[in-house]
Backbone:
C-alpha cells in the first residue's frame, strides 16, 4: 500500500472511531441476528409483534444505537444499579441527540409500547428499565456547559451529577446536586433533588431556570417561567410524567471550593445520644450545615453503629464551633471529617450504592422528630448475619422549606428530613425474608411520616401515588392530561390521566 492510500485509510478509520455509531452500524447491530418479528409489550402489558421492517426503519432513522437482546452492549444498557432488578426490554435506544429521542418516542407512541427512561439507573424500584418494552438509555447523551458570566449551567438530560459538579466548581460556582456523583441529573432533579447544599441553595429543582422536553406527541418544547409555564411547573417535582427532559438550565451560586465534610460513627452504646443530638442541633442548624443522621449495621451481623454525614460549606474558621456538638458525643469508631475539596466530597459515597448485593427500600418524609420515633427506630432495628441494615435521615429544612408549596410541583416543603430504611442481602439469598422484615419494621415507622420521596418508592397504589402530591395534585393532573393524555410515560410516580 502506498503512503497516500495508507494515510487516507488511516484517516477514515480514525474519523469513524471518533464518531457516534452510524445509521448503518445501528441497523446492522440491531438486526443481524433477527430472523422474524420482534416480541414486545404495550403499556397495558399486552403482547404484540413488531415487524422486522419497522425495527429496521427505526434503526435507520437513528444516529445512535438500537440494541436488541443478544447485541453487544445490551446487557450493560438494560441493567440498573440495584442488581435485584433484572429486566429485559425488547428494544433499547441509545440516543446521541434530541432527534433520536423524538424518533424513539414516536415509535413507542405509535405502537403503544411500554417505555422506560434510564439516566443514571439509580431507581430503587427499577423503573428505568422494563420487560418487553422500549428503554431509552440516555448514557450516550451527556454534556455540561457552564457560563460563568450568567451563572448558568446547561446540562444534557442523560448527564450525571459529577459532570455538573466538576464543570461548575471549576468556575467557582455550584448548585445542589445530590450526594453520589454517578446519579443521573434527570431522575434526581425532576423528583426533587436533595444534596449537601440543599439547605443553603434549595433543592436541585429550585435551581432549574428552564428545561427542554420531548413530550408524548414527539414535540420538543422549551419550558420556563415565561414559556410553557405549566410544563415548567410540573417537571419540577412531577418526575418523568410529562416527557423526556433533554436539557436542564441551572442557576449557579458562588462558593468556596473547600468544605469541611465527612462521616463520623459512634458505637452501639452511643446510639440514643446520637439521635438526641441530631434532634437538638441538626434540625435547627445553620443553612450552611448539611447534617444527616443514621444507624447502620454491616452484612456480617456485627454491632450497630450510629452517626452523621456532615458538610459545612460556610467559612472554614467557623467549622469547629458549628460541628462541635456532633463530634463530642464519645469515642468515635470512625471519623473522616476534614477540610476537603467539594467535588471530592461529592464522590465519597460513590461506592456505597449496591453493586454485588440486592436491596429493598422504604421511605417517607418526617415533619418532626419526637422521642417515640427515635424509640421505634432503635427498638425494631435488628442486626444479623447476611443482612445489612441502615436507617437514614436526609436533612431537609433551611432554604428548601422557605419555598412556597405551590411554587413547584414538589409538595413536601415542611419536612425536616427524608427518612428511609434500606435492607441489603447477598444476591444468592432468597429475598422474601428480608423484604418481609423491612415491611414489618417500616410499619412501626410509617405513622410518623407524611408522604414520600418519589424516587425511593416501588409499587404504590394509584390512590397513594396521587395523594403523595397533596394539594398540588389537581394542577398536576391537568398538566398530565395536556402533555401525556394516553399515559405513555407511566414508569414513574405515575399520575394516571384518566
Residues:
Amino acid at each position: 500500500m502506498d503512503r497516500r492510500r495508507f494515510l487516507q485509510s488511516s484517516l477514515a478509520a480514525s474519523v469513524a472511531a471518533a464518531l457516534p455509531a452510524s445509521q448503518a452500524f445501528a441497523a446492522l447491530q440491531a438486526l443481524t441476528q433477527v430472523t422474524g418479528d420482534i416480541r414486545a409489550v404495550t403499556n397495558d402489558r399486552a403482547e404484540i409483534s413488531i415487524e422486522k421492517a419497522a425495527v429496521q426503519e427505526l434503526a435507520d432513522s437513528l444516529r445512535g444505537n438500537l440494541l436488541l437482546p443478544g447485541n453487544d452492549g445490551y446487557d450493560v444498557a438494560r441493567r440498573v444499579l440495584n442488581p435485584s432488578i433484572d429486566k429485559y426490554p425488547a428494544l433499547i435506544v441509545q440516543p446521541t441527540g434530541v432527534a433520536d429521542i423524538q424518533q424513539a418516542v414516536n415509535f413507542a407512541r405509535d405502537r403503544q409500547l411500554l417505555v422506560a427512561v434510564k439516566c443514571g439507573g439509580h431507581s430503587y424500584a427499577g423503573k428505568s428499565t422494563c420487560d418487553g418494552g422500549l428503554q431509552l438509555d440516555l448514557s450516550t447523551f451527556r454534556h455540561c456547559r457552564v457560563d460563568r458570566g450568567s451563572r448558568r449551567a446547561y446540562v444534557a438530560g442523560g448527564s450525571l451529577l459529577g459532570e455538573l459538579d466538576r464543570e461548575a466548581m471549576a468556575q467557582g460556582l455550584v448548585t445542589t446536586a445530590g450526594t453520589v456523583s454517578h446519579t443521573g441529573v434527570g431522575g434526581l432533579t425532576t423528583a426533587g433533588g436533595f444534596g449537601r447544599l440543599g439547605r443553603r441553595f434549595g433543592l436541585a429543582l429550585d435551581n432549574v431556570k428552564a428545561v427542554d422536553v420531548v413530550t408524548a406527541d414527539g414535540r420538543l418544547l422549551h419550558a420556563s417561567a415565561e414559556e410553557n409555564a405549566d410544563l415548567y411547573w410540573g417537571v419540577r417535582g412531577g418526575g418523568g410524567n410529562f416527557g423526556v427532559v433533554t436539557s436542564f438550565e441551572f442557576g449557579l451560586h458562588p462558593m468556596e471550593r473547600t468544605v469541611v465534610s465527612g462521616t463520623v460513627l459512634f458505637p452501639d452504646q452511643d446510639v440514643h445520644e446520637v439521635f438526641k443530638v441530631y434532634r437538638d442541633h441538626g434540625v435547627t442548624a445553620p443553612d450552611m450545615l448539611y447534617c444527616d443522621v443514621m444507624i447502620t449495621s454491616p452484612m456480617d451481623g456485627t454491632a450497630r453503629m450510629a452517626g452523621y454525614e456532615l458538610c459545612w460549606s460556610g467559612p472554614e474558621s467557623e467549622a469547629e464551633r458549628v460541628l462541635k456538638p456532633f463530634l463530642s458525643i464519645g469515642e468515635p469508631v470512625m471519623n473522616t471529617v476534614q477540610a476537603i475539596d467539594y467535588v471530592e466530597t461529592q464522590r465519597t459515597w460513590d461506592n456505597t450504592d449496591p453493586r454485588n448485593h440486592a436491596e429493598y427500600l422504604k421511605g417517607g418524609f418526617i415533619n418532626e422528630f419526637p422521642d417515640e420515633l427515635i424509640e421505634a427506630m432503635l427498638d425494631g432495628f435488628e442486626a444479623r448475619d447476611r443482612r445489612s441494615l441502615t436507617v437514614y435521615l436526609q436533612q431537609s429544612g433551611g432554604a428548601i422549606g422557605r419555598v412556597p408549596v405551590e411554587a413547584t410541583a414538589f409538595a413536601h416543603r415542611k419536612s425536616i428530613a427524608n427518612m428511609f430504611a434500606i435492607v441489603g442481602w447477598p444476591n444468592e439469598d432468597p429475598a422474601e425474608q428480608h423484604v418481609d422484615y423491612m415491611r414489618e419494621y417500616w410499619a412501626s415507622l410509617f405513622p410518623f411520616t407524611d408522604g414520600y420521596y418519589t424516587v425511593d418508592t416501588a409499587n404504590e397504589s394509584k390512590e397513594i401515588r396521587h395523594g403523595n402530591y397533596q394539594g398540588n395534585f389537581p394542577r398536576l393532573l391537568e398538566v398530565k392530561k395536556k402533555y401525556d393524555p394516553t399515559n405513555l410515560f407511566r414508569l414513574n410516580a405515575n399520575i394516571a390521566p384518566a
About this structure: The chain is about 30% helix and 25% strand. The two ends are 67 Å apart (CA to CA). The CA atoms of residues 364 and 446 lie 7 Å apart. Residues 144-254+463-483 form a domain with the Uridine Diphospho-n-acetylenolpyruvylglucosamine Reductase; domain 3 fold (CATH 3.30.465.10).
